[in-house]
Amino acid sequence: QIAVQNPLVSERLELSELYKEYAEDDHVYQEKIKDLLQKYSYIRKTRPDGNCFYRAFGFAHLEALLEDGQELQRCVCYTGVSPQLMELIERVERRVCVCDIGVSPQLMELIERVERRVPLPELLAAFNEPATSDYLVVYLRLLTSGCLQRHRRFFEQFLEGGRSIKEFCQQEVEPMCKESDHIHIIALARALHVSILVEYMD
User: Do you know which InterPro entries this protein is assigned to (predicted)?
Assistant: First the structure.
């Protein structure tokens, strides 16, 4: 039912659509929406399947790259079998071929669409193909896991329950449909050398 009602990534929606999701007498949320309206003109929704952070980031980044050729060229180095990517992936102890991660037809097709400056609706349609979108999610999860393990001394101080970084990655990062938290966001931003701004409604 969720798959039928919610696309992986939605079309652009007016940010004012958020008013419909919160009670009119809930002044805290109503004021937050007013604040967001001062900063943004639209939103996109993602399917609430546990992969929403990676999908939201993945598509937002590709959408931004359509308008920034210089950033696109910098990003491309992370999609090929670059030394940076190999170093990250090699730290993820999984039975995944590094070469397959680097030259996946699905991932390269997305990048090539951006390089060709395809219309945004075409990019959105491609991203909403489950095989393509899910592969990008896997790729981003592996990058996140690799960064966490590469910088384990820094990230271990944020873990609870006595788990090691390796255990955390195996249980909370690499599997599909696992929700993300601050530690995932920080690691992915660090791996790709980008900034990620998170807006909270609560």
Answer: OTU_dom, Papain-like_cys_pep_sf, Peptidase_C65_otubain, Peptidase_C65_otubain_sub1, Peptidase_C65_otubain_sub2
Residue 128: how many CA atoms within 13 Å on its side-chain side? 18
Range of the domain at 60: 49-192
Residue 27 lies in a domain: no
Which ranges in 66-118 belong to alpha helices (H)? 69-76, 83-90, 98-103, 105-115
The predicted model scores a pTM of 0.84
- Number of domains the chain is built from: 1
Distance CA 55, CA 36 (A): 21
| Weakly modelled stretches of the chain, pLDDT under 70 | 1-4, 69-104
- Is 148 part of a structural domain of the chain? yes
- Model confidence pLDDT, tens digit, residues 77-92: 555 444 555 555 555 4
